[in-house]
Amino acid sequence: MSTRTTSRLASYGTLIGLLLLVVLFAALDSRGIFLTTGNLTNVLEQIAVLAMVAAVQTVVMVVGDFDLSVGSLASLVGVITAQLLVGGTSLPVTILLALLVGLAAGALNGVLVSYLGLSAFIATLATMTSFTGLALLVSNGATVFGLPEGFVAIGQSRLGPVPMPVVIAVVLTLLVWFVLSRTVLGREWYAVGGNSEAARLSGVNTRFVRFTAFLASGFGSALAGVVLTARLASGHPNAGDPMMLMSIAAVFLGVTLSRAGQPLVGGTVIGLLIVGVLNNGLNLLQVNSYVQQVLTGVIIVAAVSLSQFSRARR
Amino acid sequence: MPTRPTPVLATRGISKDYGPNRVVSDVSLEFHRGTIHALLGENGAGKSTLMGILAGVRQPTEGDVLLDGQPVQLRSVAQGQAAGVVALPQELVLVGTLGAAENIFLGMRRPGRRGLANRRALARAAAEQLDRLGVELDLERPVAELSAVQQTMVALARALARDARVLVLDEPTAALTDTETERLFGVLRRLRSEGTTIIYVSHRLDEVFALADVATVMRNGRHVWTRPIGETDDDDVVRAMIGRSPEQAFPERSATPGECVLRVADLAGHTLKGISLEARSGRVLGIAGLAGSGRSELLRLVAGAERARAGTIEVRGRDVTRAPVGRRMAAGIGYVPEERRSQALVMNATITSNIALGSLRELSRAGVMDSGRELRRSRELAQQLRVSATSVKQDVAELSGGNQQKVVLAKYLARNPEVLLLDEPTRGIDVGTKAEIYQLVRGLGERGVAVVMVSSEIPELLGLADEIAVLHEGRLIDVVPAASATEESILHLCYRKPDR
């Protein structure tokens, strides 16, 4: 087999891996639940909130950075939303405020990274820590219950057969896809991530462009926080935290599908599906949840190293 | 005739190919004990490659390296050092946060008991090495805080600690002041008297004549001659470095000087000191100077890649001194930077997106890209510049250097610039593409564009430019008409030797 064919195969390896997982679980699932519409809808519903975070994490990774604060920001926005609603603030005002908090947090990260020159890792590690603290302060460290039904519907109702979180995730993902692939800003994001100096010398305002990526990240994380709170019908100060690492993992899995080694929204979606199918399938097979975590890690390493290997050979 | 001593280090018929390019061709040289041997040549003459081969960094395609008359194979820097050949690259490789003592013994078996960091034994051993150089300095202080000459001393001590018999120095005085240079020379003479062989690469001829015993000139990868320093002079060396200039097809010059498009007054930067220049529409202004003369910095300041410390930059009377790159481009400046891959291209993106990167606003409506127009524009430009690629959707990483350069040019030509700044536009490009780029530069001049071109290849400037401005250590030495200049006269100005 020629090197070219091998690398072709490897670059689709992640997609093939997803299909293999589906086939594997379908075969092992003696009760015939896995491939039902109901269960597949479950898979989508389970990854919907994570998909919102992953979509904006993709943007930040396109400009060549990370945002470690996405999960804790979602948690913070979630408890703020819950407290506002419990305190009697109207639904539209609450959601508006929640999204503004997200934009402000994103702007903070953007200023630290883009204008003050901190590394994205350090800056967002610091804000992540502070956001977690703030979330605990706002909620007094406890879960906030008693949310109005109109709000809970955002997370638990359906549009026809499709759960509302899935609808919102699809809309946000399509929006990110459109901006990344069809707009000037998207081109500038990719150019800054590909070669910041070349972009600067081509007249791109690289600082501002990097700043906007963090702004987008703050917005998406806040949206995820709102939907997550509605889905859980309660505000929990740590509810969003695990999404940070999983969103980065999903983007990396997606990068393996990109010829140029750049993050792509489509790739991120495949990465999310792998994560979702894996968790769902292992649940159905009643595999111990600790073992599930171990396996998720193994799969990520396998997929990413396979693609690294094929790239190195090119 | 007395029998000649066996050279410490020698090459026998060394050649080195990079792909189809032969960068060093059949070079046989001898380096003798206790001599300072200067290696001279223009950029691209093959000096660095040859030095790399001597130090074990690179392997020759053909030929042998002989140590004490015996052929050896130096497959790595470590093997070179074990054989006593140590090279000091131009950019010293020291760990800035560690002290001199740590740096000297980095990567070696350290003095003192194995596995334990014995600071006192280390300091003693380091002081011993520095003593041989007649140097004293604070051994604990991070080397990043030391002066340039002190850092060079640390690097030399490091070489001595490795029992270097042959030292290869690449432009060691580039970052030094005159007094520091004198100090370094004192140390080098001292090492020579102890029997160390020093291979010395420098562009500064006055240094070479002050220091070296023997000089070798290389040109286009070949050995031109080796002579005792007393039997040659700088005219002789310059002529050998240039050789007979190869006939190059430079397009005819058309002499219609236009109005002043770019005016730079009292411009100062990191190295530049008070430069005033004008570029006129329809003319090509060449900028000559040695590496470090500030020639690239001049373009970077005008393009907005760096901020000027003083002075003004005007494009058609509009002051752009403080404007960001984007506004300068809008004012009519186009800039092709020196480093294609790191400064000009997004390597993992397509030809189309690279060309479009300079004019995203023009190719979009309400922030949304007009992909059809983008594709048509890039096809037109790629065709006009004869970019050879399977399609404009090919990644630029897959293109040859010449085609990559054409893509960079296309990016700026797409904006119809009034001033085009070119920094080494033909570096690393094959002869055929070079000729095409010459045609293009000439054509731009005819269309009324003011071209400012930096090149280290003087024949290129003579062939293309109308006037040549020569820089030396940040100052403008002279602006001469290209028609009456010769390679020798320009090179003399570059070295700041009065024309004879």
From TrEMBL, chain A:
<feature type="transmembrane region" description="Helical">
    <location>
        <begin position="43"/>
        <end position="63"/>
    </location>
</feature>
<dbReference type="GO" id="GO:0005886">
    <property type="term" value="C:plasma membrane"/>
</dbReference>
<feature type="transmembrane region" description="Helical">
    <location>
        <begin position="93"/>
        <end position="113"/>
    </location>
</feature>
<keyword id="KW-0813">Transport</keyword>
<keyword id="KW-0472">Membrane</keyword>
<keyword id="KW-0812">Transmembrane</keyword>
<feature type="transmembrane region" description="Helical">
    <location>
        <begin position="290"/>
        <end position="309"/>
    </location>
</feature>
<feature type="transmembrane region" description="Helical">
    <location>
        <begin position="120"/>
        <end position="142"/>
    </location>
</feature>
<dbReference type="GO" id="GO:0022857">
    <property type="term" value="F:transmembrane transporter activity"/>
</dbReference>
<feature type="transmembrane region" description="Helical">
    <location>
        <begin position="9"/>
        <end position="28"/>
    </location>
</feature>
<feature type="transmembrane region" description="Helical">
    <location>
        <begin position="239"/>
        <end position="257"/>
    </location>
</feature>
<feature type="transmembrane region" description="Helical">
    <location>
        <begin position="208"/>
        <end position="233"/>
    </location>
</feature>
<keyword id="KW-0762">Sugar transport</keyword>
<comment type="function">
    <text>Part of the binding-protein-dependent transport system for D-xylose. Probably responsible for the translocation of the substrate across the membrane.</text>
</comment>
<keyword id="KW-0997">Cell inner membrane</keyword>
<dbReference type="Pfam" id="PF02653">
    <property type="entry name" value="BPD_transp_2"/>
</dbReference>
<protein>
    <recommendedName>
        <fullName>Xylose transport system permease protein XylH</fullName>
    </recommendedName>
</protein>
<keyword id="KW-1003">Cell membrane</keyword>
<dbReference type="InterPro" id="IPR001851">
    <property type="entry name" value="ABC_transp_permease"/>
</dbReference>
<feature type="transmembrane region" description="Helical">
    <location>
        <begin position="264"/>
        <end position="284"/>
    </location>
</feature>
<feature type="transmembrane region" description="Helical">
    <location>
        <begin position="162"/>
        <end position="180"/>
    </location>
</feature>
<feature type="transmembrane region" description="Helical">
    <location>
        <begin position="70"/>
        <end position="87"/>
    </location>
</feature>
UniProtKB/TrEMBL annotation, chain B:
<keyword id="KW-1003">Cell membrane</keyword>
<keyword id="KW-0472">Membrane</keyword>
<keyword id="KW-0067">ATP-binding</keyword>
<dbReference type="InterPro" id="IPR003593">
    <property type="entry name" value="AAA+_ATPase"/>
</dbReference>
<dbReference type="InterPro" id="IPR017871">
    <property type="entry name" value="ABC_transporter-like_CS"/>
</dbReference>
<dbReference type="InterPro" id="IPR050107">
    <property type="entry name" value="ABC_carbohydrate_import_ATPase"/>
</dbReference>
<keyword id="KW-1278">Translocase</keyword>
<dbReference type="GO" id="GO:0005524">
    <property type="term" value="F:ATP binding"/>
</dbReference>
<dbReference type="Pfam" id="PF00005">
    <property type="entry name" value="ABC_tran"/>
</dbReference>
<feature type="domain" description="ABC transporter">
    <location>
        <begin position="9"/>
        <end position="245"/>
    </location>
</feature>
<protein>
    <submittedName>
        <fullName>Sugar ABC transporter ATP-binding protein</fullName>
    </submittedName>
</protein>
<dbReference type="InterPro" id="IPR027417">
    <property type="entry name" value="P-loop_NTPase"/>
</dbReference>
<keyword id="KW-0762">Sugar transport</keyword>
<dbReference type="InterPro" id="IPR003439">
    <property type="entry name" value="ABC_transporter-like_ATP-bd"/>
</dbReference>
<feature type="domain" description="ABC transporter">
    <location>
        <begin position="256"/>
        <end position="498"/>
    </location>
</feature>
<keyword id="KW-0547">Nucleotide-binding</keyword>
<keyword id="KW-0677">Repeat</keyword>
<keyword id="KW-0813">Transport</keyword>
<dbReference type="GO" id="GO:0016887">
    <property type="term" value="F:ATP hydrolysis activity"/>
</dbReference>
